[in-house]
Fold:
Amino acid sequence: MIPFACRTCMSTWLPDNPHTARLIPALRAIRPVNMAFINGHSIPTPPSTEPAVYDENHKKFAHSLLPSTPDEWIQRASQVSEILGKDVAVREKENKIPVAEVSLLKSAGLTKLLGPQKYGGGGQDWDVAYKVIREIAKGDGSLGMLLGYHLLWSWTSAVVGTDEQNDRLQKLIIENNYFVGGAVNPRDNDQKISNDGDHIVFNGFKHFNTGGVISDLTVLEGVYEDTDKHIFALVPTKQPGIIFSHNWDNIGLRLTESGSVKIDNVRVPWADALGWDPRSKEPLAQVLTIPWASLLLPT
Structure:
């Protein structure tokens, strides 16, 4: 039996672990799929679910307006939760990347819940978001967690970004109905950030990256070279420098896609460094003196 990773034994799957080369062929035999590479080792990409399975639901939601009141949002979440709950045990067992399930969250409008109404978002507050997350989790705990993290990470620029950055990113996220993941956790060493002219460059490795595999955008965070100052940025997920290990198989939350990820020379324009002045390359005190950890992480 392959020793799948969990939060207490994730070191089994570190790319530099001498056992990795032995485990990868066994996993490939179970899931004959596409490959990514970390430190020369091929990393299999598991199969994903097909959005077409929810075609009838997509059509229904496409012909419906977004909810406009808290009660309507909770009712919409209840409808989605009921759909997800019908085969949750089967999907948990199959452990496929939940592309179809996230597409259902999108078509139901739940990913837009907190977004500005001027860009097509729901304009709701966090108290409604908490209730919607719990409602989804009643039908499928993994999807409740994914939605919660999406709402958390899509809110990043509202907390550590300038007004201009936040407005620009909210427009991008809501108008494209993007799903947001995050390669940020306090267990690991911070990613390293170097300066390269008009860009910064992220490098590092994170054990946990909830929702990253099925995200459109990923939140990165690291420490700027020769300082103790942190920088957050949102970047497109589908790029060569974001390499997923596909090593998450945790009982009860298999579909959260919370496995590890390598960040390899991911370039970001200085203008997208949240809360930083791209000219002086210094953090803006009026933005980043806010105790963001106290405000953001409890969500």
Notes: DSSP finds eleven helices and eleven strands in the chain.
